[in-house]
Amino acid sequence: MDLNKKYRELLKKEKAYTYALQILNWDSQTEAPRDCFPQRAEVMGFLSGEMFKISTGKDMQEAVYGLYEQKDTLDEITKREIHKAKKQLDRITKIPENEFIEYNRLLQMAQRIWEDAKANNDYQSFKGTLAEIIEYTKKFVSYYGEGKHPYDVLLDQYEEGMSMKEYDEFFATLKRDLVPFVRKVLAVRDDTNYDFLSRKYDIDTQKKFSNYLMDVMHFNRNRGLLKQNVHPFTWGTSPEDVRLTTKYVENMVFSNVFSVIHELGHATYEQQIDSKWNNTFLEGGTSMGIHESQSRFYENIIGRSHEFWETHYPKLKSLFPEQLKDVDVDLVHRGVNRVEASLIRTEADELTYPLHIMVRYEIERMIMNGEIGVDDLPEVWNEKMEEYLGVTPDTDTEGVLQDVHWSSGMIGYFPTYALGSAYSAQFYNAMQKDFDVLGVVKTNDMGKINAWLKEKIHQYGSSKDPKELLLDVTGEAFNPKYYIEYLKDKYSKIYF
Ligand code: ZN
Fold first, then answer.
1. How many Cβ atoms sit within 10 Å of the Cβ of residue 242?
2. Radius of gyration of the chain (CA)
3. What is the rounded distance in angstroms from the CA atom of residue 18 to the CA atom of residue 236?
4. How far does the centroid of ligand 1 lie from the alpha carbon of residue 454, in Å?
5. Which residues fall inside 5 Å of ion ligand 1, going by CB?
6. pTM beyond cutoff 0.70
7. Residue numbers annotated as active site
8. 204 C-alpha to center of ligand 1: Å?
């Protein structure tokens, strides 16, 4: 049979399983009653097993490796698709099956061990497991990394085309041009009363504002929905079905507001991808960094702008007249852009956020280079926090143990968060050349922004890699200058 036809059929089967698993997973994360989980785990185990067989089995290997051999006869798009498929297949098939199973068992245990260690501020009880995860990671990379530096292989895995060379330059630029500015902002004494941020805001009314935001962003409700859970996320099975969640906390109304806008950024990206990529290897957003650039563009550049609140604050105030009676739009704008040296990454503001990532990048780099071991981690962590943010955690719970990533085997993932923010500023700069972006925000014409992003970025799905996209959209390669200029400009206006 024609190899391409065979490949398409296998992919269609695999996608059917993926779809079923994703919907079940979505249900698990949002509405499933507690007692359904044992039986559900069995069903999901079965479905995952079947999917794994299809996606890595002999037929798939024959199809993908066969097509890869003929790659010079393929059109450009199929060539990229097969290149991506081969890379993923290599990652799985080159690892001996028994090691793969052992590793997954380790990860499952690691999750609980890390949770306990974090709850009890007991790094010692976790470090052995972490050392094992690092060893496995290095070993696996040696199987499929084609001799490249292990950290480079991991970085590329999470953000195609990125390596230590690029990230070193990026973070060195931040260190040189941004860190001194952040320290200056942190030194400003701010006597403003921000009480309103933590007043009680009834959750049902908060939900009304979420709905309002979905309309502001032109979210297509025929192609998606919003629910609530503990950790907000977005899930797109195809542009026709994009689901997102948010978290409601009574005394943190803006936590929901910015979660919704952030996740709507991810969701808008997924909804605006051309359906022609459905059931191919090129569906979905192209990378972690590009995805994060879209969510952070909407959340920070749009959602935390003065113009946004000039337009939408009246609605929030009409929903919460009591809580907001003494608060004007300037105070809201200042409150949602308040800069603080915090210990916890997920609570960090837009300006200090990249420094939290810098700490993690430098540590991962040293670990993968063998410059430090797990014994050194808490101390190195604390030193770097002091150096960049001027704060030292009292406990490892608030320090090296705070994030889930390493216990899940995700080494090399963190840098994409900072990269996403930096990409978003570069895209923003390009968009500004075409129209006055914040002017459009002020007249509540988000459709114009969505249309620009669709035309330049979203429609392509994964058919362009991040480097290609940046070049096509902005006319140049990744350049952190735009990010630093954007941050300095914005926060100078607020603080100086
Ligand atoms: Zn995100």
1. 25
2. 23
3. 11
4. 18
5. 295
6. yes
7. 263
8. 24
